[in-house]
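Entry:
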Amino acid sequence: MEPPKGTGLPVPRRPTQFANAENASAPRGQSGLSPSALRAPLAAALFSALILITPPADPHFRLCGFHWLTGHPCALCGMTRAMFALAKGHVVEAVRFNALAPLGFAMVFSLFLTGRAAAIAYRLWPAGLAAFGIYGICRLVLA
């Protein structure tokens, strides 16, 4: 119920979820940081790990369940080693591990983008998933 016009009384408002406008921009966790504020440090940590760690070029055992069951590589076989190689700038080596490594690298790091760049980068995902599906079928047929 509103007060009569011209009385000078304030109009009652419904309580909001946030106490002030500073917190209204994004929901915050218990740490007080918004999820978008954590994206840059997480991306930097992932990229640093990819640069600092070097997995063997020919692993002693394969982690891929599909490879264990069928003996054929799946669409993602070699992607872990390719990601490490791409982070170090070894593009040719990465493509030898998995031909779609640059696409996979772009897809993973598009998850850390925010704002308009994220909206554009997320369009990459449907095409990227289709490319990996086709690549996986080609690897099975040609292997």
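The chain has one domain: 37-142.
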